[in-house]
Amino acid sequence: MFSFQSLIHQKFKKLKNRFNITFIIAFIASSPILAAAATNYPLKITTPNGTTLIKSKPQRIVVLEFGLMDELDLLGIKPVGYGQNYPGEGDIPDYLKPMAKNAVGVGARDIPNLEAIAKLKPDLILGEAAYISNLSPQLNKIAPTVLLNGIYGNSDEQIKNLKILAQITDTESKVPAILSTYQGIKSKAETIAKKGGKKTVLIGYVTPSGIFKALTANALATSILSELNRENVIKKTERTQVMDLSTEAILEYNPDQIIVLLTEGSMAPYKKLSTDPLWADVRANKEHQVYFMDRDIWARSHGIETLEIMYNKAISTGFLTAKPVANTNK
Q1: Where in the chain is the domain with CATH 3.40.50.1980?
Q2: Fold for the domain defined by 43-170
Q3: What pLDDT score was predicted for residue 184?
Q4: Is 86 exposed, middle or buried (0-12, 13-18, 19+ CB in 10 A)?
């Protein structure tokens, strides 16, 4: 038979256990391992171009580089302004248009319109370090400016950029899921590419006059192709990352596969090139190994979302298995 004291003791023990469980659950939920801590402002961001002080969570962001725009999109951030392509080369990549629906174009990414940026009253400007470092003093007079390696950054650099942008925008909790998805798509593409065997590739776009502009060895697409068991036949490097090739030169390189990059989906320049009688002798053409990809994706933007699109397109077209899927080469 229980005494009154014994009953009180058991009740207290149950309450204590319940308190401990509640405490443990609360501790786990607040753990930095399982739940990202909120960003503390003011925040100092240091890049090779200097240190930028961000006083509070940005609400009006102008982004001047597609790769950084890409990563903001993954984080669910919509800009008020964005950098564009040059006139006649499209506005921005198609997949970024929904997130920029209510934003304002502020001119070319490397020579933006400073007056247009100022009119938007941004509280943060993001840009490409290689493009606009010289404009940094002027941009910083408008709003705090962070310059990162977007267009020339490899996949590791893009992951670093994502983490910096997540910290700036207080969205770090989204990063693990984003990277998990990215790594899954990349691994799938690499596995398929390994089974398909190593191939040599020529990649580039065709001008309206029918000139083939090949991406050179220092183009970022070259390293991405290397990850996919593909070797760029162009070994030269150029400051512009492209070089002109005649049809005769293409025949000399004689790659296993050719990727033709389309501007806004237009096949007209390629059709002009294909009327050259020598094109019929190009091995990749004869063996149905000419693949069509998006120039914005492969040559202008290299954010994480862009990389996912690259890998998925390389799979879906049959490029990685060298077995083109019907209707992809038309």
Answers
A1: 43-170, 182-321
A2: Rossmann fold (3.40.50)
A3: 98
A4: exposed
